[in-house]
Amino acid sequence: MAEQTVIEKKPLFRPFNVIAGIIIIIGIPLTYLRFTGGLGAITNLDNNTPWGLWIGFDLLTGVALAAGGFVTGAAVEIFGMKKYHSALRPAILTGFLGYALVVFALLYDVGRPWRLPYPFFVSQGVTSVMFEVGACVALYLTVQFLEITPAALEWLGAKKARIIAVKLTVLLTILGVLLSTMHQSSLGAMYLIAPSKLHPLWYSPYLPVFFFVSSIAAGLSMVIFENTLSYKYYKYKMSKEHREARDGVALGFAKACSMVLAGYFAIKVFGIALGNNWNLLFTGYGLWFQLEMLGFVLLPCFLFAVGVRDKNLKLIRWTAGLTVFGIFLNRLNVSLIAFNWHLPLSDRYFPRWSEIAISAFVVTIGLLAFRFIVTHMPIFYEHPDFKEEH
Amino acid sequence: MSDGIHTLQEFMKHTKGIIYLLGIGYLVAFTWFWKFLNKKSKN
To answer: What is the CB neighbour count within 10 angstroms for residue A135?
Structure first.
């Protein structure tokens, strides 16, 4: 059981609470403006750039970073790596909240939330990649909700319902891996429609493969990153077993991430060769591409390897942060920075402050939900009533 | 035969040839990387 006895009463006006409160106070009227005045009221989106920060950051980055759920689920439940079991619930929770926020943020971008079920029940566009993305996100969100349900049922003391939920675990994990593979790649496939808009160094017929492979690295590094932050802020909630297992999780995931990043770097180089785009590498965009590839793919790959070899956990945790930032940069490059690269600067999109505020609002809601769940439900420890059954 | 790439076939031949060479280079590099990753630190 977690050491709950050492919790001291914390003041309400802590820095996190104050900042979160300010963001929410700003976010609510902006939400009202968005749904009454349309996209034009609070965004800089136009016909050249109909997808802006909310797609580049909230959706593409959010989905990639939420990949930790299916990666950890596959490792523990399918490949039988039970030594990573302690990382499973936090990873699934992060994944579930990540996807829930993706859908929440998408409502701002798409508008008219009551029409969300239309693609499934009214007008199915089954030949569209967008349909695949929508279907997979909806199904995977449901799967992740069911996967995290045992923790909620343990908290509520619903023993019989929990038994049914636990029995579904392996089936749900398999479904999760299947759906994630499909839609992580289909997010990349969405950009296949824009070969003339996306810079040739980022555009490739293999974009779906790039998105899928990089999402695995994102998931692995996000588990390490989330674990580091959780330990810092919720150490008092972690059981002894959880605390003891976290170094092993970091080492194992760092090793896997190092190999995945090595593979990802190679296929990105193959992508350049496939388009014969070597001559673009020393242009302005080329140097930016090199920074992304060398600074946020090859460097973390090497640092993870050194960290694993030397069992340097501090280096591994910093490198996980670097990789997470690298994935964020890659998704922004594909969706915003290298998109419409041929347009004059005056016609290029730059997000308005209100778009950034809405993104911060969405992330803040996620952080508050995470805090509520980990402080109430058995995420970092095993519930004493069900300890024998884990 | 003149130098340069003029047809799609020549382009494909050129890019595929480079990809095969890169693939071999990657396999060699990954073997080294695997050894590096699994080598125990002296510390």
So the answer is: 18
- Which ipTM score applies to this complex? 0.87
pLDDT along chain A (390 residues), means of 10: 54 87 95 93 90 92 90 90 89 92 92 87 88 89 91 87 87 90 91 93 94 94 92 87 89 95 95 93 95 96 94 94 95 94 91 95 94 91 71
CB contact under 8 A, A266 and B14: no
- In chain B, the residue whose alpha carbon lies closest to the alpha carbon of A271 is B19
Q: Which of B22, B36, B38 is closest, CB to CB, to A273?
A: B22
Residues of chain A in contact with residue B26, where contact means CB-CB under 8 angstroms, are 266, 269
Residue A127 CB-density burial (10 A; 0-12 exposed, 13-18 middle, 19+ buried) = exposed
Nearest Cα residue to A210 out of A168, A165, A261? A261
Report all structural domains of chain A as residue ranges with CATH numbers, in order of start: 14-384 (1.20.1630.10)
From A193, A202, A196, select the one nearest A343 (Cα to Cα).
A196
Query: Cβ separation of B33 and A305 shorter than 8 Å?
Result: yes
- pTM, 2 dp: 0.91
